[in-house]
Amino acid sequence: MSAAFLFALVGVGLFSLGLYALIVHAHLLRKILAINVMGSGVFLVLVALAKRTGESQPDAVPHALVITGIVVAVSATALALTLMLKLTAETGRAELPEDQGK
Amino acid sequence: MNWDAWIPLLVIASSLLPGLIIFFLAEDRKRLRTTLNLAGALVKLALVCWMLWGVYHEHHYETRLTLLPDLELVLRAGPLSLLFLTLSTILWLVTTVYAIGYLEDSPHRSRFFGFFSLCVTATVGVALSGNLITFLLFYELLTLSTYPLVVHRGTEVARRAGQSYLVHTIFGGALLLLGTVWLYTLTGTLEFTPRGFLNDLGEEHRPALVIIFALLIAGLGVKAALVPLHGWLPQAMVAPAPVSALLHAVAVVKAGAFGIVRVIYDVFGVDFAAGLGVTEPLAWLAATTIIYGSLRALFQDDLKRRLAFSTISQVSYITLGVAIAGPIATIGGVVHLVHQGLMKITLFFCAGNLAETLGIHKVSEMSGVGRRMPWTMTAFTIGAFGMIGAPPVAGFISKWYLGLGALEAGQEWVIFVLAGSSLLNAAYFLPILHRAWFQEPQDAWPEEHHFGNKETAWALLLPPLVTALMALGMGMLASAPFSPLGWAQFISQREFYRP
Amino acid sequence: MGALLSEISWGVVLILLPLAGGIACFLFPRAAKVLGLVSVFAVLLSVSGLGWNIKVNGIYRHAIGGWNAPLGIDLYADGLSLLMLAATALVGFGISVYSADYFEREDAARFWPIWLLLLAALNALFLSADVFNLYVTLELMGLAAVALAALAGGRDALGGAMRYLLASLLGSLAYLFGVALLYHGFGSMDIAMLAVRVEASPAVWAALGLMSVGLLLKTALFPLHFWLPPAHASAPAPVSALLSALVVKGSFYILLRLWLEIFGPLGGGVDTLFGLLGTGAILWGSLQALRQTRLKLLVAYSTVAQIGYFFISFPLAASAGVTAWSAAAYLVLSHALAKAAMFLATGNVLRFGGHDRIADLDRVVQRLPLTACAFALAGVSIMGLPPSGGFVGKWLLLQAALTQDRWDLVSVIILGGVLAAGYVFKVIGHAFTLADISHESREVPAKMEWAALLLAFGAILLGFLASPVLSLVGIGVPFGVSEVSP
Fold it and tell me: Is the confidence at residue B478, as pLDDT, over 60?
């Protein structure tokens, strides 16, 4: 098992872990963190798979893509946090309105 | 593109444009609205006369616009189109005059006349359609533009009638659409052609064609009020009288019946349809409807309801005529399209007059009304005799040809249906006439309005008199040139004798 | 003049113009309305320029900064892209005119920059030629859309927006995962190159699965539609219109492109699955719409149902490709116009009466005849009655289904239309009852009524424009070669 493949597997693991957390946790901060963990998983897969079979040098393109992806993820997280704060100010709890009844 | 290609489009525009303008008029712009209505109706009449003359001299009037890739919107003035077109144009003019008088000072007149014009636009489009998709387009437009007229009164009853109307027509429209697309995927054309366009289709498609026929007839049968799809029609009589006149005589049921004629003659072709074995069940269905409608009419005390069931019965004469699948019965069926229209509109106008002038809605309230409103009841009497089939009113001509046609086609059972239905017609019309002319009036009418020393307003009285006279004239002058009977013979010849 | 028109690289203009406009709106909030309207109008003109260019020269392709793929970014536009761009510009312009009167000063300063950013993202999305670029634009579109959905503030809007954001991020990440797998397998992001290289393998199936789920989630296809009704129903009317008419179409477009170029030829049962989900969407969405007591939710569920129709094309495309895809394209276009009109009309009703309870609509609808008319005309297209764009789409869809004897789909298409008639007339019926005149009303500016009406009228007009529109869409043969027509 090559190192790249191992990294990719870890990426898949992170993605699944994040998805699980996104579904089970009601608190919005946890949900946002879960999304970030999923994102890191995908980036890890991208970077790991950049070393394509049969080539000695890793491909530079996915690395560039990951940087773009991180920028997107940061802005998305910022928006999510802002929304969360507003929602908390409005309802008093950092949860989706339909989860609050539970 | 020459002038002839524009005229069908102009016929459509002559009611579409006034209709659209009227929507934007304020309620109190009465004179402008009336002018627009009448001008549109007269322009349309002039254009139709022009085309009648032209078609007689072998001109072709055809408009083609691309609708879908490989499918066109076709408006064409053939003999059958012109028959229905002329009828609806003349009756629109008359009904407009009547509606102006009838809706004097009632609310939402701009809305009413706007949809009224759209409704006639749709009817005229149905008449002029040169292929099945154009027909479908105007047929659905008719549904949409008549719904607001049915619910115009805004009461709970009207709302329920409208709902019933919608449920029936939307359902019917869906079946019609399905049949049309299916037919198109089989043939690649939808162009109305005398004697049909299915003759080249292979034997293996016959089961599919039978189902398509059933789908189309069911879709059209809803508007033509074939039993068991007739449920909406008696309910829809809550609409104002001019709307009932329009529904029963000019537009809706006629569009359905006309569509059935089209499907049998110009889509399937009579011979082909008879070969498929679909005309005979249709004839039986029509016969059932004729008897059923008449029986139900017997037991209605509400005058408009009685007339509504009578319509269900009478419109199926048209279907019966074409379903017998013989040249003479065809004449009877097609000519009844016109005759029934004139007679039934007369009756509805009269019913409207009774309601507006004296507040009479029920047959049992009509005692002695002939003395109070002699002219109205004269018109009513002519219409009623026509419905029964008594000579010399036009209805007699229809029944005569239907009967002859049935004998010629070897379908003697039809004679019994005709005779039975005529007896039933007499049974539900003659008591009304007896009550109106020969019984003593009650002490007071339910709700009387006075119009000087006239029995009612001119705008209400003239239309039924005109249509009654026309019904009488068409019966007495049936053999004159340009009479509906003449056109019907022409259409029958085209379908049966020309190679 | 003609030379000048072909000199300009309209694709670049289409992205930069709204972006610059958005920044300007942000910098000069007092002038946001004027700047916004001018920008959107300029975008409309630029789309015409691009259209003219494509009509004359065929497919448009532009390497940004002179850098070619794989390192550079290519812009690409064929007939399908043009259709989406034109729909966006037209509907966007109608909604902008409406918004000019809808938003008061403070809201306007927030609305215009985000809307122009959304417009830039949409345009870039429809012009993208590689799967990663599509990811970036998809994410941008999603973020801008969420920000717009939150604009109204308050518990419902913020909650709806939050849920929308989470669903949207989840969708994009799944999509990006698929991109990573595709790149690993075939060493390219360019759609055209992938189309040549791709062959069936477990990694490709995994990519297809991940990308489809991500995009279906963003397109809100049943049963992944859970986020749509709350988000669309709690946003301000013009925003609901933008979300329903345009934003869900963005992710659908990506899916359609990927399917046409990369995944479609691979076969497999995925198209059947899409068809099933589409069926579910039509039935579930329509029934839910019928059950609603609030007008905005009714319209939102109608969107869920109509999205189902787009997916009916997938199982039909195998042997009636051009007809089925033309149907989908036409349905997308007419739904954009009709649904925008419906949401705008709903906004007028809300503004006038202060509520959108369907049971108490009579007074409101009767005093806003233009709005009622807009709703009715849009309804005609949604029901698929002739003449309308919706009818053309359904006709083509039925034709494709009938030539293959797909009776299951035929009955769903017909039934969906009947159900749509049910919920449209549930609203329209109120225009014709006897209602008391009351005083609770607030003026509705004429521009807001006319914007809704003209958009609805556009959906009707489409019923007569099928031939030219479809021939324009056919430029660059996005749907493959025509099968033998019946």
Answer: yes
Would you list the DSSP string of C370-425?
A: HHHHHHHHHHHHHHTPSSSHHHHHHHHHHHHHHHTT-HHHHHHHHHHHHHHHHHHH
Place of tokens 């694709």: C11
Q: Using CA atoms, how far apart are residues B175 and B254, in angstroms rounded to an integer?
A: 18
pLDDT of residue B235: 87
Among C136, C173, C193, pick the best mutation site for testing chain A contact (most A Cβ within 10 A): C173
Taking CB atoms and an 8 Å limit, are A62 and C139 in contact across chains?
A: no
DSSP annotation of C153: -
pLDDT at position C249, please? 94
Q: Which residues of B touch C399 (CB under 8 A)?
A: 181, 184-185
Asked if the Cβ–Cβ distance from C156 to A84 is below 8 Å, we say: no
Partners of residue C75 on adjacent β-strands: C62, C128
Q: How confident is the model at residue C1 (pLDDT cuts 50, 70, 90)?
A: low
Q: Do C432 and B159 touch (CB under 8 A)?
A: yes
Out of B23, B152, B181, name the one closest to residue C402 (CB): B181
Look at residue B24 in the predicted model and tell me its pLDDT: 85
ipTM comes to: 0.93
B174 in C contact zone (CB under 8 Å):
yes
Separation CA B486–CA B55 (nearest Å): 14
Section B420-438 average pLDDT? 92
In B, which residues are within 8 Å of C417 by CB distance? 174, 177
| Interface touch B174/C433, C-beta < 8 Å | no
For residue A5, the chain C residue with the least C-alpha distance is C184
Through-space distance between the first and last CA atoms of chain A, rounded to whole angstroms: 46
> Pick from C431, C464, C485: which is nearest to B70 by CB?
C485
Chain C hits for A45, CB-CB cut-off 8 Å, are 177, 180-181
Nearest CA in chain A to C147: A79
In chain A, domain spans: 3-100
Give the Cβ contact number of residue A53 at 10 Å.
10
Q: Which of chain C's residues have a Cβ under 8 Å away from the Cβ of B222?
A: none
Domain range summary for chain C, segments of one domain joined by +:
1-266, 269-486
Put simply, the answer to whether A80 touches C181 (Cβ < 8 Å) is no
**Given this structure, which CATH class describes domain A3-100?**
mainly alpha
Residue corresponding to tokens 């998809």: C138
Q: Using the beta-carbon criterion (under 8 Å), do C467 and B163 form an inter-chain contact?
A: no
Write down which chains contact chain B via at least 3 CB pairs under 8 A.
C
Is the Cβ–Cβ distance between B407 and B415 less than 8 Å?
yes
Span B289-307, mean pLDDT? 91
Contact residues on chain C for B141, CB-CB shorter than 8 A? 386-387
Asked if pLDDT for residue A54 goes beyond 70, the answer is no
**Residue A1: predicted pLDDT:** 57
pLDDT at C100: 92
DSSP label of B4: G
SS (H, E, C) chain A: CCHHHHHHHHHHHHHHHHHHHHHHCCEHHHHHHHHHHHHHHHHHHHHHHCCCCCCCCCCCHHHHHHHHHHHHHHHHHHHHHHHHHHHHHHHCCCECHHHHCC
Q: Find chain C residues with C-beta within 8 A of B69's C-beta.
A: 466-467, 470-471
* pLDDT value at residue C440: 57
Phi and psi at B283, nearest 5°, equal -60, -40
When mean pLDDT is compared across A5-9, A47-51, C160-164, the lowest value belongs to A47-51
Which residues lie below 8 Å from residue C150, measured CB to CB, with a gap of 6+? A83, A86, C157, C158, C161, C162
Q: Select from B21, C150, C140 the least CA-distant residue to A85.
A: C150
| Domain positions in chain B | 278-499
Q: How many CB pairs under 8 A join A and C?
A: 88
| Eight-state DSSP code of residue C244 | I
Q: What is the mean pLDDT of residues C159-184?
A: 92
Q: Residue B276 in contact with residue B268, Cβ under 8 Å? A: yes
CB contact under 8 A, A52 and C187: yes
